Amino acid sequence: MGDNNRRNEDFFTAAVLGAGALFGAYQVYKRYSSTDNASNNSNQTHSQSDWRDINEVQFYNRSHMNRVISNQNECKQAVKELRQACKEYPVLGLDCEWNNDWNGRRKVALLQLATQKGLCFLFRLCKIGYIPEELKRILADPNIRKAGVGVETDMQYLLIDYQADGAGAVDLREMAEICDVPLPHNLASLAKQSLGIIMDKEWQVSDWEADVLTENQIKYAANDARVAIELYKVYDY
Fold first, then answer.
1. In sequence order, which residues have a C-beta less than 8 Å from that of residue 70 and are 6 or more positions away?
2. Which of 11, 77, 146, 165 would be a feasible disulfide site paired with 94, CB 3.0-4.6 Å?
3. Rg of the chain taking only CA atoms, in angstroms
4. Residue 138 near residue 79 (C-beta atoms within 8 A)
């Protein structure tokens, strides 16, 4: 009778340990399978034969979706539209442009914020002279994510130049690393690999404090922010 009891206890103990091991393995699978799926999805990179020039893709060439903001009244309306867009999808593509001189970096001249539907507001901070409070509140809102490459640096510059606190920064380089996207992780490379588009960087070094921005400057700046949010959507599916 004692031997039977011991055998029963041993059987029960083995069953419990076996069940525990299976449950633990299942939890590990659950934890990492979503990351593996993300990596597999993002690793379906576009081959060079699939790359398209950004100027040939309609989504990135809708001039009516680029809004240049040069004064406080325009800024108020822009923020209303951004707030409305973020109710549907609380993520914005963010980028900044500035000039350099012999003393180094000048103050941020242009702040770009793009919504998931491709609407991009280009705030000419060099013309406005400051960041209005309603725009500062969006930048400081942790519930609205701001996606970009080096976005924390951009936010740091906005803080230094205009005393605008930032929150909700999401660096696309970190997302790309998690998704196993091959290096390099600059914006142009990520756009090729994950979106299949070749970005136009001709206007990167131009006069962002000019009295009037050219159409090429506007399109270039808007597409930097637009590409950022499109990449976010790829990596955060």
1. 124, 127, 128
2. 146
3. 24
4. yes
Residue type, 219: K
> How many whole angstroms from its chain centre is CA 116?
10
Decide if 41 contacts 237 (C-beta within 8 A): yes
What are the tokens at 151?
Answer: 């976005």
Longest dimension (CA), the chain: 98
For the stretch 186-202, pLDDT in tens is 999 999 999 999 887 66
What is the side-by-side order of every strand in the sheet holding 145-148?
66-69, 120-124, 104-114, 91-101, 145-148, 169-171
| 3-state SS, residue 228 | helix
* Six token digits for residue 129: 């002279």
pLDDT at 212: 96
Q: Which of 222, 185, 232 is nearest to 200 (CA)?
A: 222
Which residue's entry shows tokens 């280009």? 122
- Angle 215-235/2-42 helices, nearest 10 degrees? 170
pTM of the model: 0.79
Which amino acid type is present at position 157?
Y
| Residue 225 three-state SS | helix
> Do 94 and 168 meet the contact criterion of CB atoms below 8 Å apart?
no
Q: Report the amino acid identity of residue 201.
A: K
pLDDT tens digit sequence for 53-93: 777 677 777 878 999 999 999 999 999 999 999 999 999 99
Going by the DSSP 8-state scheme, the letter that residue 194 receives in this structure is I
